[in-house]
Specification:
Blueprint: H1 2-14, E1 31-35, H2 46-59, E2 65-69, H3 77-86, E3 91-95, H4 100-109, E4 114-118, E5 129-134, H5 136-150, E6 155-159, H6 168-182, E7 187-189, H7 201-216, E8 221-224, H8 228-237, E9 244-249, H9 252-255, E10 263-269, H10 271-283, E11 290-294, E12 296-298, H11 310-325
Helix pairs in contact: 2-10, 5-6, 5-11, 7-8
Length: about 325
């Protein structure tokens, strides 16, 4: 019995204690906190992807302690950040374009804490704040390159939200450029969307109508973007058995099951990858101030795995790599 107790004591002495939140103020413990948007941590979109990036950093032994706080009410956002900062968290990840100004204020309030703002474009530079942002035209380019290789009719469609919505003009330009990169003779149907910044039910009706018109005019691939209008366009694609559709932003197979019959894949922001990269840079004392541009990729092909030959996948992966490295550009100029 004595030997058993002695062995247990020795084993306990040999095991390192798991860091807790109370240790975050210590310089020897690296803590990462995340504050979600109101969609929550299980939104199957940006919040979830960002949290997966934080968890990956912990799994790679970069972070010792990780935690998230879900924002239930918009007015609580800064208080949620304050809670993490006051507890000594080294890095705070803030998710959502609508919190750009709030994150900047908090970064200035806590200059010794590093902040990563997902989808938060930095116009002015705050030394301890990095915006993880994405070139929308590159995502559109990947969608167009795939659409041009899916079509059998030689005609594809793009249904986009209002160009008053951030990134929409870049997505549209990139989609058309990517399709023509594969086939310069391709026909692209891309109707002009309503000029409204706020989304309404009318956007869904317009998106469905625009996709329906395009399909009736020979398009057999639909790329839908712009929240309600884009989602409605994807669902409209299911009404034509031989049509394919492509989502954007997150894996819409998870978030829009009604589009399954036509949804080949989605072009996605690699949010988790970008978060992990930035956390590693922060741990090395090299967090870049200003904007850090993340990369785009493709979600799984789900029920359409057999549709996409390996040679096509390899070619698409190469295009994504070339865009990320800058050896291939879309030609998009946001100033025009």
């Amino acid at each position: 019995m004595v030997l058993v107790l002695l062995a247990a004591l020795l084993l306990g002495a040999c095991q390192a204690a798991t860091p807790s939140e109370t240790d975050c103020a210590s310089t020897d413990v690296f803590c990462i906190g995340l504050v979600t948007g109101i969609e929550g941590i299980h939104d199957m979109s940006t919040n979830q992807a960002a949290w997966e990036g934080v968890q990956a950093a912990q799994n790679e032994n970069v972070a010792d302690q990780v935690r998230y706080i879900e924002t239930v009410d918009l007015k609580d956002y800064e208080q949620n950040i304050t809670s993490l900062a006051e507890n000594g968290y080294d890095v705070i990840v803030s998710v959502g374009e609508q919190f750009t100004e709030a994150t900047d204020r908090m970064a200035k309030t806590y200059p010794n804490t590093s902040f990563i703002g997902v989808d938060q474009n930095q116009v002015a530079t705050t030394p301890n704040l990095t915006g993880l942002v994405f070139h929308a035209d590159q995502g559109g380019f990947l969608a167009g390159a795939l659409a041009a290789q899916l079509t059998r009719s030689g005609t594809i469609a793009g249904v986009f939200g209002s160009e008053m919505m951030p990134g929409m003009s870049g997505l549209k330009y990139g989609y058309e450029a990517g399709a023509r990169y594969i086939n310069p003779e391709i026909i692209i149907i891309s109707p002009s969307p309503p000029e409204a910044k706020e989304l309404t039910e009318a956007d869904a009706r317009w998106g469905a109508s625009a996709a329906s018109d395009a399909l009736q005019n020979g398009a057999d691939v639909v790329f839908g973007s712009g929240d309600r209008s884009g989602n409605a366009a994807l669902i409209e694609g299911t009404h034509l058995p031989e049509a394919y559709c492509i989502g954007v932003g997150n894996d819409q197979w998870e978030s829009l099951p009604d589009a399954h019959p036509c949804l080949v894949t989605s072009v996605v922001k690699m949010v988790g990858q970008g978060i992990t990269e930035l956390i590693k840079q922060t741990a090395d004392g090299k967090l870049p101030a200003g904007n850090y541009y993340g990369s785009w990729g493709y979600a799984p092909y789900h029920d359409f795995e057999s549709l996409i030959p390996q040679t096509t996948r390899d070619g698409l992966s190469q295009i994504a790599d070339d865009l990320r490295m800058g050896s291939l550009t879309t030609g998009y100029d946001p100033g025009k």
